[in-house]
Task: inverse folding
C-alpha cells in the first residue's frame, strides 16, 4: 500500500464517492482519510456541495405552453389516425 | 415507461399530459443550461415534444424514455446555443479543463511533507445549508454552474441537481463512465471552491 499526499487525495475524491477506486487505491485512500483531518474536512465539503446543489430551485412550464404542447399532440394524433 | 409509451401511441391525451408534467422541471433545467432566457427554454421544451412525437416510432426502448426525451432536448438546446453563441459565458478559469482542481498553493510545495495541506479546509458544518435557507447561496450556486464548461454543466446538473445515475447520464450524453467522472469531478470541485470563497468572505467581512 503506497501513501497518498493530500494533493493526490483531492483528485481521487470523486472516484471514491462514485465507488470507482480500485481495491488497492481504496485502501490507501481510507488509510489517509483516517489520519488526515484536512482531507476528511475536504470530503465533507464535497458532500455538502452535492447537498446544496440538490436544493436548486426549478422552473415550471406555464399553463399556456403546456396547452400548446397538448395541442401539438392532438394534431399529431389526428394525422396518425388518418394514416 | 412502457405504460407511458403505450398510452401515447393509443392517443391518450391524459397520459401525454402526465408525461409532459412529469418531465417539465428536468427539461426546463436542462434547456436553461444552454439558452439564456426562460422564454427560450420554454420554446426548446415545446420543440422537443414535437420532435419526440415525430420520432416516437424510432424509440427502440434501449435507453429509458426520459433519457431519450432529454437527449432530443439537449440536441435542440445545444444547436440553439450554438446559433446564439456566447449566450452563456464559457469558463476560462484555470482548472476548468485540466490540471489540479485545488489551488496548488494550498499544499506544502517541498520537504518531507510536500503535497500535504498547508492551508487545510475548515469544516463547514451547517453554515452553507443555513445560508441556503436564507436564500443567500442560491444565486451564487446557479452562477457557479453556469460558468462551467457545457459538459461539466450538464453532468453536475443531471447527477447532483436531478439525481440521475451515472449510467443514465452516460446514455444521455453518449460519453463513457470515466469521462463522466472527470467532468463531474471538475464541476464539483469548482462549485466547492466557489462556496468556500463565499464562506470565507462571510466570516471575514471587509474592513
Result:
Amino acid at each position: 500500500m503506497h501513501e497518498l499526499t493530500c494533493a493526490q487525495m483531492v483528485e481521487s475524491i470523486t472516484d471514491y464517492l462514485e465507488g470507482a477506486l480500485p481495491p488497492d487505491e481504496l485502501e490507501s485512500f481510507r488509510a489517509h482519510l483516517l489520519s488526515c483531518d484536512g482531507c476528511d474536512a475536504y470530503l465533507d465539503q464535497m458532500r455538502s456541495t452535492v447537498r446544496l446543489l440538490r436544493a436548486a430551485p426549478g422552473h415550471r412550464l406555464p399553463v399556456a405552453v403546456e396547452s400548446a404542447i397538448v395541442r401539438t399532440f392532438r394534431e399529431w394524433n389526428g394525422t396518425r389516425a388518418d394514416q | 415507461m412502457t405504460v407511458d409509451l403505450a398510452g401515447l401511441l393509443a392517443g391518450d391525451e391524459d397520459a401525454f399530459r402526465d408525461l409532459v408534467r412529469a418531465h417539465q422541471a428536468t427539461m426546463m433545467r436542462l434547456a436553461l443550461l444552454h439558452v439564456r432566457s426562460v422564454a427560450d427554454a420554454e420554446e426548446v421544451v415545446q420543440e422537443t415534444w414535437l420532435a419526440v412525437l415525430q420520432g416516437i416510432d424510432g424509440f427502440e426502448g434501449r435507453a429509458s424514455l426520459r433519457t431519450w426525451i432529454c437527449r432530443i432536448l439537449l440536441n435542440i438546446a445545444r444547436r440553439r446555443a450554438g446559433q446564439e453563441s456566447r449566450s452563456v459565458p464559457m469558463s476560462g478559469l484555470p482548472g476548468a479543463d485540466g490540471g489540479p482542481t485545488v489551488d496548488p498553493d494550498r499544499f506544502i510545495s517541498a520537504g518531507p511533507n510536500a503535497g500535504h495541506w498547508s492551508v487545510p479546509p475548515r469544516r463547514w458544518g451547517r453554515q452553507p445549508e443555513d445560508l441556503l435557507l436564507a436564500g443567500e447561496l442560491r444565486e451564487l450556486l446557479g452562477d457557479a454552474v453556469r460558468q462551467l464548461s457545457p459538459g461539466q454543466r450538464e453532468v453536475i446538473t443531471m447527477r447532483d441537481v436531478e439525481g440521475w445515475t451515472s449510467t443514465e447520464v452516460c446514455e444521455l450524453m453518449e460519453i463513457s463512465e470515466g469521462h463522466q467522472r472527470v467532468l463531474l469531478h471538475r464541476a464539483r470541485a469548482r462549485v466547492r471552491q466557489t462556496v468556500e470563497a463565499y464562506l470565507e468572505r462571510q466570516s471575514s467581512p471587509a474592513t
